[in-house]
């Protein structure tokens, strides 16, 4: 059983962020980067499946050179190898271009199962997993709260969270891409032995040219989405209490959202 | 309720910028243990401390340890947290790979110790005592005993203790009465009672290994007749673990560290084995005690850091009054108390202490690494001299000031600090033991003045005096450092004068040394802090404006804290200097019956 897990490095949620000079992204200088939290759940799920089945976990990361730290972290947690896509030709892309590159790298490596987190905490498109599945032509499930490998190892039974406290149970034929929901498990801490062993594990770099994908479909060139500007949310201190019973409060709120805040039409 | 964030940036600064822990990779066995690896490990342990161990601190204090039918139950969650540490290999950071350890240099254990103790001192006790027992056995026991015990202690499957104190033998271990009778097969039967045994009995591990001071038949009186024995709670018989006649009689009800079991231990014909030679137990135990004294110095630092963080958090959030020079935050109902000069004074005093203590701890720790691992015998000797000189200073100065700091931090929080729900008073209560255990601070002062100061005709002392003098000479013309170097030079000159005075007076009367000892230790502590603060200021000034924005803020704050230390804290050394020179007469001539 070969399990690929895709991870991203994102700004530390506790970092004080500033808008960068170009106005289109944050100023990354002095900002600490960490493993995207929702990816930690995917890593944990991958490790648990691998431990139950005697399989191996291979971590994939796309991003600048610093992404190596995030991969090292996944290796410390127990993945056996990692693949780093840090070629400048692959960077700065949207979920579509990023997903294509990751899918190509996974295809080359070969995998029975691909796990991803629910979304990145910086851009939050929650789309890379779907793109990977689309590129590979594999089945895809998201909002997954449980993954159980079938006895014949040809499919996984998954539990998906539905609204109203319901769960959906389905079987997904392997190979497949599963986008797990945060909270599916309790991610482990790296052991000291794991951290020491990670130093010696392989992180293989793959260049854009090795992926067999047309350069125009990768990185910034392959993106259909362009971030025009980012801004810090404006914080205000005015609070207005709307009193009354639930129906009256709801009606008053809708009126205010339509007429004052102009967020409803 | 205060939260805790491990001071990883400052730890990295102290060990890898102020001192050169990276150079340890040149020592045999530490080739792979560079700063990258060590700090990555610390980052992970920091998460465990912040997310798992610190949240058990206040509930553990409320619940305390329970004693029933000879069994001690630790507070809820302790066993699980202990298992998490053991399974992750965190209990064997510095243990030798031959015994299943990770083989990291000593400073990794010291950084880990600070984080664990700051998160939950009671919890940390169970683990640090085990690592102390490991060290004593590794240094002094026979190969057979090492092979049997060390892997179990390294893995955390078994825990360890040190059993010194008896009801009549506290600071004076020469009065120890515990009997060890040879059985003729190389083992001994131990009979007697030990008290105040931390982690003497608990439910974390299946077995507990006690290192016990005892007397063999016909042993000379006093400390020259004391042997060290290893006595497990469960001994192996026919491949099975059976009870070994070691029982817990009761546990103490204490002011602080309530989740750490402090036990009366009864040995009733318990089987043990000699560690090292007969009657040479004190020497072996000193390995344990020196390591433990350094660790207690860290308890002072750690609790002060935890309390400091709580105070800063409170001072930012609590809105009371307006800044004396006009509102600083006019949009708020009142200014946060952080703006008030007296609150700032308290917060900066906390900060200058913790960062200074972290640096002094690091200097001492790296001297120990040299003493134990450096291939050059001169460096070994120098490391040993410096570490043995600084150990009583670290222990006593950092716990006296550490306790003071927890109190200051509580004061920042006003009435809230005094309530149990707020969590600040626990730091004060927990810290109160630190000037007492592992040799009271009075004993540390006597150790410094009576043993360390004159040791090897003053050679140990010169290991400290020379670097300070060299620094002062090298920086004499440095205009930017003048504000730090001048007060350091003044305080250092006084320390030298006090040392000369003490050496002279001690020849006339040993009471002079005894009465001056605590003031001397404090004077020494202030000068050691001043030396390290001056070096930190120099380094931070050199790095001023360099690196990312976080670094720029870090170095700027470092220089400002140094300035506060020199202007507002170091003057305290003068009082100790004056008190010391006044001599012992007023103390010693007071009639006993008039007390």
DSSP summary: helix tally of chain B: 19
Rg result of chain B:
24 Å
Q: How much of the polypeptide of chain A forms β-strand, as a percent range?
A: 15-25%
Strand order of the largest sheet of chain A: 9-8-7-10-6-1-4-5-11
Number of strands of chain B: 11
The ordered string of helix (H) and strand (E) elements of chain A is EEEHEHEHEHEEEEHEH
Give the overall pLDDT of chain B as a whole number.
96
* Coarse shape of chain B: globular
Number of helices of chain A: 6
Distance between the termini of chain A: 51 Å
Main interface: chain pair and counts: A-B, 15 and 23 residues
Secondary-structure class of chain A? alpha/beta
Given helix and strand content, the structural type of chain B is: alpha+beta
Oligomer: heterodimer
Name of the CATH architecture of chain A: 3-Layer(aba) Sandwich
Query: Portion of residues in helices of chain B?
Result: 55-70%
Distance from N terminus to C terminus of chain B (CA atoms, Å) equals 43 Å
Based on the model shown, name its key terms.
heterodimer; A: 265 residues; alpha/beta; Rossmann fold; 9-stranded mixed β-sheet; two-stranded antiparallel sheet; 6 helices; globular; B: 595 residues; alpha+beta; 7-stranded mixed β-sheet; 19 helices
Describe the structure in your own words:
- Chain A has helices at residues 37-53, 67-77, 95-109, 128-136, 192-198, 246-259; strands spanning 2-7, 9-11, 33-35, 56-62, 81-85, 113-116, 140-149, 155-161, 167-173, 176-180, 203-205.
- Chain A is of the alpha/beta class and 265 residues long.
- Chain A has one domain (2-222): Rossmann fold, CATH 3.40.50.620.
- Chain A has a 9-stranded mixed sheet with strand order 9-8-7-10-6-1-4-5-11, sandwiched between helices.
- In chain A, a hairpin with a 5-residue loop joins strand 7 and strand 8 (155-161).
- The radius of gyration of chain A is 21 Å and the shape is globular.
- The mean pLDDT of chain B is 96.
- In chain B, 57% of the residues lie in helices and 12% in strands.
- The radius of gyration of chain B is 24 Å and the shape is globular.
- Chain B has a domain at 440-584.
- The interface between A and B is medium-sized, with 15 and 23 residues.
């Amino acid at each position: 059983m070969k399990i690929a897990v895709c991870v991203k490095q994102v700004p530390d949620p506790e970092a004080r962020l500033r808008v960068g000079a170009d106005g289109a992204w944050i100023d990354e200088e002095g900002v600490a980067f960490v493993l995207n939290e929702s990816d930690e759940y995917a890593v944990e799920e991958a490790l648990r499946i691998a431990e139950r089945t005697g399989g191996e976990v291979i971590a994939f990361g796309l991003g600048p050179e610093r992404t190596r730290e995030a991969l090292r972290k996944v290796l410390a947690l127990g993945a056996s190898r990692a693949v780093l896509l840090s070629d400048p030709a692959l960077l700065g892309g949207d979920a579509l271009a990023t997903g294509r590159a990751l899918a190509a790298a996974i295809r080359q490596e070969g995998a029975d199962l691909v796990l991803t987190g629910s979304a990145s905490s910086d851009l939050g498109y929650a789309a890379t997993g779907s793109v990977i599945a689309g590129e590979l032509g594999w089945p895809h499930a998201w909002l997954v709260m449980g993954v159980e490998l079938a006895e014949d190892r040809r499919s996984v039974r998954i539990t998906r969270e539905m609204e109203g406290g319901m769960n959906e149970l389905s079987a997904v034929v392997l190979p497949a891409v599963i986008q797990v929901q945060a909270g599916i498990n309790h991610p482990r801490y790296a052991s000291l032995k794991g951290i020491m062993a990670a130093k010696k594990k392989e992180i293989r770099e793959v260049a854009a040219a090795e992926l067999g994908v047309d350069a125009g479909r990768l990185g910034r060139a392959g993106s259909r989405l362009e971030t025009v500007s980012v801004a810090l949310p404006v914080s205000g201190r005015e609070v207005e209490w709307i009193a009354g019973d639930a129906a009256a409060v709801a009606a008053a709120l809708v009126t205010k959202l339509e007429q004052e805040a102009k967020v409803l039409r | 309720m205060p939260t805790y964030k491990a001071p990883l940036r400052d730890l990295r600064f102290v060990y890898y910028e102020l001192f050169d822990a990276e150079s340890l990779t040149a020592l045999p066995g530490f080739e792979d243990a560079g700063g990258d690896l060590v700090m990555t490990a610390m980052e992970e342990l920091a998460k465990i401390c912040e997310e798992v161990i610190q949240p058990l601190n206040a509930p553990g204090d409320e619940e305390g340890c329970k004693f029933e039918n000879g069994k001690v139950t630790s507070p809820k969650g302790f066993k699980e947290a202990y298992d998490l540490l053991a399974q992750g290999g965190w209990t064997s950071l510095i243990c030798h790979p031959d015994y299943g350890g990770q083989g990291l240099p000593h400073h990794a254990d010291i950084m880990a110790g600070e984080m664990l103790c700051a998160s939950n001192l009671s919890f940390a006790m169970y683990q640090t005592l085990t690592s102390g027992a490991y060290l004593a056995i590794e240094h002094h026991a026979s190969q057979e005993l090492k092979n049997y015990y060390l892997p179990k202690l390294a893995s955390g499957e078994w825990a360890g203790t040190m059993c010194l104190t008896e009801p009549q033998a506290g600071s004076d271990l020469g009065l120890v009465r515990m009997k060890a009778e040879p059985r003729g097969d190389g083992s001994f039967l131990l009979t007697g009672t030990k008290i105040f045994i931390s982690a003497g009995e608990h439910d974390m591990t299946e077995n507990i290994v006690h290192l016990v001071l005892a007397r063999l038949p016909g042993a000379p009186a006093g400390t020259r007749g004391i042997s060290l024995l290893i006595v497990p709670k469960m001994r192996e018989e026919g491949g099975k673990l059976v009870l070994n006649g070691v029982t817990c009689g009761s546990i103490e009800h204490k002011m602080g560290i309530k989740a750490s079991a402090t036990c009366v231990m009864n040995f009733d014909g318990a089987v043990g084995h000699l560690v090292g030679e007969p009657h040479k137990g004190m020497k072996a135990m000193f390995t344990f005690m020196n390591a433990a004294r350094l660790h207690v110095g860290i308890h002072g630092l750690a609790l002060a850091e935890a309390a400091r963080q709580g105070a800063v958090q409170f001072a930012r959030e609590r809105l009371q009054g307006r800044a004396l020079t006009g509102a600083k935050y006019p949009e708020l109902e009142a200014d946060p108390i952080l703006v008030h000069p007296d609150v700032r004074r308290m917060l900066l005093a906390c900060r200058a202490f913790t960062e200074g203590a972290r640096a002094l701890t690091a200097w001492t720790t790296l001297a120990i690494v040299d003493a134990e691992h450096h291939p050059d015998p001169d460096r070994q000797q120098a490391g040993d001299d410096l570490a043995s000189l600084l150990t009583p200073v670290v222990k006593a100065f950092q716990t006296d000031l550490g306790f003071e700091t927890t109190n200051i931090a509580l004061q920042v929080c006003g009435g809230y600090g005094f309530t149990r729900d707020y969590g600040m008073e626990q730091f004060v209560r927990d810290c109160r033991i630190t000037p007492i255990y592992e040799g009271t601070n009075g004993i540390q002062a006597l150790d410094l003045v009576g043993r360390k100061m004159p040791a090897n005709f003053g050679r140990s002392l010169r290991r400290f005096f020379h670097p300070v003098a060299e620094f002062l000479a090298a920086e004499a013309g440095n205009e930017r450092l003048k504000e730090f170097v001048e007060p350091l030079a003044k305080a250092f000159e006084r320390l030298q004068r006090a040392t000369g005075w003490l050496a002279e007076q001690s020849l006339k009367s040993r009471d002079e040394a005894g009465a001056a000892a605590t003031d001397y230790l404090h004077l020494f502590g202030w000068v050691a802090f001043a030396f390290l603060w001056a070096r930190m200021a120099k380094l931070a000034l050199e790095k001023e404006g360099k690196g990312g924005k976080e670094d720029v803020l870090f170095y700027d704050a470092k220089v400002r804290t140094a300035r506060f230390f020199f202007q507002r804290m170091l003057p305290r050394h003068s009082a100790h200097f004056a008190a010391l020179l006044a001599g012992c007469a007023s103390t010693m001539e007071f009639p006993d019956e008039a007390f």
